[in-house]
Amino acid sequence: MKKRIILSTMFVMLAAVMLNAQLKPGDIAPDFKLKGVDNKWVSLSDYKDQKGVILVFTCNHCPYAKLYETRIIDLQNKFGGKQFPVVAINPNDSTIVEADSFSNMVANAAAKGFNFPYLLDDIQLFKKYGATKTPHVFVLKNEGGSFKVAYIGAIDDNSQDPNDVGEAYVVDAVNALLEGKALARTETKAVGCTIKFK
Amino acid sequence: MLLLTAVIGGHAEARKIEDVPVEKLKQRVEKASDTIFVLNFWATWCQPCVKEIPEFNKIPNTYKGKPVKVIMANLDFPNQKDSRVLPFLETNEVKHEVLMTITPRGGEWIEAMDPTWSGAIPATIIMYKGKRFFHEGETNYETIIKWIESLL
């Protein structure tokens, strides 16, 4: 019994360490190769000719992710043409949440008119980034071919009402990067759904 | 049988959910007292939160002669109280006090509640006489009891 308690305590501690292993602003973002809803494979290194990438861990089922779908489309409309496109990644295991399966991703992307790659993370890439929830944004700046984390956190400060946003964190961060200015914020937090994995 | 009917009857009564600013909630659980506070952040839309509610229901009111207070801090949007939260409580048993957490704009309150919290729910904080334990993610009864014991 005692052994079991010690073991499970160690497991809890290990899980806590794993959760805390998040990339920090300034870190180099790890490359990846994941399949998108159009059956094309996408790598971060495919974006070497861009100024940066707005990487969004998101999914189909989470109500907070749903609240932000239109705003993510807007980010691509706003910054795709300015060489700072959106790439979205669904990190959830569909054996836990069926709504987040690849076929449901294809359907959701078509229904909402996603104008950005929507990739399935079946290699637990989210752990390398330290993403813990959906939506969870990593704004990456291209510095000579390697992508550096510039901002981690929420899209803006009002999940519920897009018409009552005080600070548009990601828009402000990308604008600052495009203008070569310092970022007002490099990390923010918001409520979201835990990433579902085994 | 009569007792059972009385218990069920008690639960069938319409519940009230108080709106509480998250700052007030924080002050309440951080207050120095003999009470062990178990604070669980949840929402009706959060599948793992809903799944673990029966685990919190198992926590007895008294723990080794010490008062344990479990607070289920709801994070549905306040305008969904009547449409989602109250109907949820009619069909799902939540034994402990349910509060509607009123949060300010932005995420500073998440950081203030616990610096290691990313904002994902469920999340559980246990407070006892200035000592605290925090966990982000799903849990179960046995683990919660172990966390409480680690603070005693």
TrEMBL record, chain A:
<dbReference type="InterPro" id="IPR047262">
    <property type="entry name" value="PRX-like1"/>
</dbReference>
<feature type="domain" description="Thioredoxin">
    <location>
        <begin position="23"/>
        <end position="179"/>
    </location>
</feature>
<dbReference type="GO" id="GO:0016209">
    <property type="term" value="F:antioxidant activity"/>
</dbReference>
<dbReference type="InterPro" id="IPR036249">
    <property type="entry name" value="Thioredoxin-like_sf"/>
</dbReference>
<protein>
    <submittedName>
        <fullName>Thioredoxin family protein</fullName>
    </submittedName>
</protein>
<feature type="signal peptide">
    <location>
        <begin position="1"/>
        <end position="21"/>
    </location>
</feature>
<dbReference type="InterPro" id="IPR013766">
    <property type="entry name" value="Thioredoxin_domain"/>
</dbReference>
<dbReference type="Pfam" id="PF00578">
    <property type="entry name" value="AhpC-TSA"/>
</dbReference>
<dbReference type="GO" id="GO:0016491">
    <property type="term" value="F:oxidoreductase activity"/>
</dbReference>
<dbReference type="InterPro" id="IPR000866">
    <property type="entry name" value="AhpC/TSA"/>
</dbReference>
<keyword id="KW-0732">Signal</keyword>
